[in-house]
């Protein structure tokens, strides 16, 4: 029964957290960099590191489990000059970041060989990434047709592997081969479609900073002087100067230089003439959004200034005695003062304020597509130019009165601009989650200057955006940690709940890593910055959320397909409506009494045609899905559930079967010794000294649990010393063998004892059966080939596990447990949490096969796991959910990351996805229903029976309102509250560890 216990431990590998003395366990952050503790000798750490950093990729043959990977990683990190080492057991790769002045690739390779694995340097992949991800801000898109046009243009560029254009965020995310195409060519491709492209990031290993330079003159000499001075700095790759904004944008490698160096160079270049600082608002997405809001606001205000008098002269003053006479005063022939005023006021609205619609129409039509701008331009032009024709006819005739629609074109443009203003205002709120994440970073930091002995000689408060790599920062109690790094001095507790969700403060001392944005609770810390700017953990989480908001949900394809023929169809319907009403009037198809006294049959038909054209709204359809996905993923991030895009959301809401891993998912993943049964008389201290001496060389979680427990028998728990073990041998999946103090020790499962021909007595068999019945793992210990004891190790259930399974049953979601553990322990755990179907002693590939079998039976399957061995199943499942405290490989393979490692967040993820897709359906019902009902009403279907008609300016207002209503409907998701039953779990203290 215990035959697979050590195998399970081997597979689980490093998914269990390691304890450091009496400190809290170190959490593992999703998609974040690892910082090895003490990658250089202490004196070299304090002096700092000089010289460039290199990266090497090794192919490692012979690794079979996470324990193997852990051995390789541990051995490499012990070398001097190693900054980072990550071992991927699934792909047999090891990536090492190192300083060549301390260590070379050959030494690293030999070290891996010494561990017992064959390592080969992979030359081709160490130099340059084959794929970059570029992000571009796109200005001017109005509907799905625009985004589809840009996306098609980008996809057609050689070297582009994938392009996604999001209308809601007005951004493009492009995966491209930098050897074939550059990001500048991608921006040109965007601009060729008629839209403005602004680079956000290139995906290259560099950062960008924007500086405002006071005193920058418009002369080319000043500009060239600054540009040449900056280009001379090591690590500076590109300098762009905007004289109009006095802005200098610098792309650089953060390993070699940083923003403080740039400011110093700029200010020293001009002999005091120039003063540099961080550019306000960073010149990024938020500043663009705010500028767009201001532009629409200004346009609407100016439009209203001209439109209100037009409205008054056409609809109000005509009913006021005195004013009516003034308005009806003839100027030339039948041309009146009122018509002249309306013509004069509506012209700037049509051609100056409404210029954006002409520009947008031209761009769209030039590329063979039609968008909302085309409808608006056609509708307003029809009203305006017919009015001009009517006015000119009145001015040249002594008996023909004018019937103008100047108020139609002016009010149409005003209402549409108001609608766009409200729309961009609402769309800005859909990405508030990202803004809140970014706000976690402090505004200021205290920079320390150290002497050669490591003593503080100066403190200086700086903008946190000016922090550079290897800076030493002081963090006082109550302050936020300003940068990712490691502690070089001091002790404290840090609240990391905003990133990990773990409410308990984590103890920090010299050598421990800290994450930017977390809060220092009590003591003073000095930290050395290792990851700044876009490399930080917080920035990586922000990028993950941004990528999620970019990704299209499959349901959005419906809107994309409709958008291809929507505008042409509306134009045809509009023309058909005008023609039908015009012919009906010309051939007396309806009584003349239907025609209002202020117009003729042609004008009535024209109004119906214009109303059809401007009431149709492709924008609402285009915004229905992306705005809901943006808000849904943002809300998820704020709840500690990172959802990687619309595809994951759409799949999650359909889930009706969940496959749970056991260790680290249903259980805490931190094995502890719970019982010891000796079969012969000996001191417990002596027993554990011998066992720990053998197990201390193993990386297995169960071995670590034994060693940790054995420390309790020593006086100095912090620095334990064990007897020396000789001839150590780790038997994968079984246990270990060693010689300790002239005694032969064999520690492992029952199958190992049988292979070594060691008799397992009946009472030991009974103890093993009892242990498995209690959901514990039994480890047998033999000394000098005689069984002397059984160590029972338990991995406690997560407090909320049983309740979560019960809630899922009430949601009609089936739960299954798949584990590599033995059947006895697996069945015991399953019975305790309430799971009926159990698959035990499963290898990683078996887990993936079981997921596929369930899919073949018709289930939509979610897999919840945390280990390297879970990654094949996470990929195979319809939705992969990774526990946040798990391994990087599991997290990369997953569609949803549960950052807080709380099991109940599985329910939150499913419930949130269901609520989000309910909102998407509601948006589609509204957007499609609005067009299906609105277009016939605008075409006049109610007019014969009720004499009700929709004036074009009201139709335009309704069109603008439809887009705003869809965005506002999506924004209601911000009020999402997770199921109340989960709050009850917290109240009962179930999730409190």
TrEMBL record:
The keyword Cytoplasm does not apply. The keyword Disulfide bond does not apply. This is P-type Cu(+) transporter. The chain crosses the membrane at residues 299-320, 340-358, 370-389, 409-426, 565-584, 604-624, 924-944, 950-973. InterPro entries: ATPase_P-typ_cyto_dom_N, ATPase_P-typ_P_site, ATPase_P-typ_TM_dom_sf, ATPase_P-typ_transduc_dom_A_sf, ATPase_P-type_domA, HAD-like_sf, HAD_sf, Heavy-metal-associated_CS. Its EC number is 7.2.2.8. It comes from Rhododendron simsii. It catalyses: Cu(+)(in) + ATP + H2O = Cu(+)(out) + ADP + phosphate + H(+). Belongs to the cation transport ATPase (P-type) (TC 3.A.3) family. Type IB subfamily.
